[in-house]
Amino acid sequence: MYAIKLELKLNNLERTLMARHSGYARFCYNFALSLYQGVKEHRGSSSKKVAAIERVFTNHVKKLPEYQWTTTLSSRVYKTTFRHFGEALSRCFKGLGKFPKFKRKKDGDSFTVDAADWNHAILLLPQKLIKIPTLGTFRLKESIPFPCMAQTFTISRTADKWYVSFALKAEKMPPLFHPVVETVGIDLGVSTFATLSDGNCYESPRPLKTAKTKLSKEQWRNRNKQLGNSRLGVKASNNARKHYRRIAKIHAKIANQRRDFLQKTTTEISRKYAQICIEDLNVSGMIANHKLAAAISDCGFYEFRRELEYKSAMYGTTVELVDRWYPSSKTCSSCGHVQSMPLKERVFECSNCGITINRDLNAAINLARQSNLA
Ligand SMILES: [Zn+2]
User: Fold this and answer.
1) How far is the centre of ligand 1, averaged over its atoms, from the C-alpha of 374 (Å)?
2) Rounded to whole angstroms, how far apart are CA atoms 194 and 104?
3) What's the gap in Å between 353 CA and the centre of ligand 1?
4) Which terminal residue of the chain, N or C, has fewer Cβ atoms less than 10 Å from its own Cβ?
């Protein structure tokens, strides 16, 4: 387990809320301890006694009119407090700690809330906001360092500052080192999805290509079908309806496959390489070329770059954007000579030094060289 502790930025109302919950936790702990002292000498395991005390609290104490205030507060607080009390007892019996003591207000404020189980764990995004189960969303002084999942949240006060801390699952931890430390350049293309300057490349998955072909066939064969026309009073035919349902299904399938491919690729790259250099995509230039614009939006280049960027915080990588005007595909990666390279030419043949190299690989190597870190 790995824990993160961040300072909360609370207003007066929120401070009061946190203080009330801390008081509630203290009350429950002391309640459990006083009842436990009464049954300490009786037979039975301590965990059974604690469970019985919790039942008394839930079924009787919470229902008394003088304890009505407990119903306005998060019920997760007393659940976690009784759990903590049980843990304190077992630590004591193992000789790891002293017998629990009554909590006093001057000892400080703290309490724990949790999501019911890991399936309800909270997704935390790198922003200055945090969602705490059963309490709501609160502002933070600094943002969460990387996207992660957490189930248990402890809120505590030190002097007049309030903090939230949460533990992360080990497998969600960022790796401690990257197998490759040299800067890697990535060239994105329509024919090969991503070419890396060390010679590795990522192809769009085959099923994605098949699905795309299937989609264009389906659309071409039914090019005259209309889903009705309300202005002309034409009703949609059953066959047209079926056709549009099929189209929607293929679209959904393609979207899922693409999402899956992009997620896997960006995770793999972020785990392997420490420094990534990627072209800043030229939006206006792409829109000027309609055919290219369609192909590019289709490939998910923006999504690819976005995922690399947000995963950089998670995996400790650096993602550098190379100036969009840098002619990465027109420059020779061997001698620096610049020549024109029409899109259809797949191989870079330098007219200066005579080197022949794959167009995308040449561009990727140039991108890696543009890094300011190297
Ligand atoms: Zn050359």
Assistant:
1) 22
2) 61
3) 4
4) N
Answer yes or no: is pLDDT of 287 > 70: no
**Quick check: pTM over 0.70?**
no
3-state secondary structure of 351: coil
DSSP conformation letters of 90-103: HHHHTTSSPPP---
pLDDT at 102: 93
pLDDT at 88: 92
| Residue 50 pLDDT > 70 | yes
Which residues, chain by chain, have CB under 5 Å from ion ligand 1? 332, 334-335, 337, 350, 352-353
Ligand 1 center–CA 285 separation, angstroms: 27
The full set of domain ranges for the chain reads 2-172, 184-369
Whose tokens are 């839930």? That residue is: 58
Centre of ligand 1 to C-alpha 369, Å, is 15
Q: State how far the Cα of 264 lies from the Cα of 256, in Å rounded to an integer.
A: 12
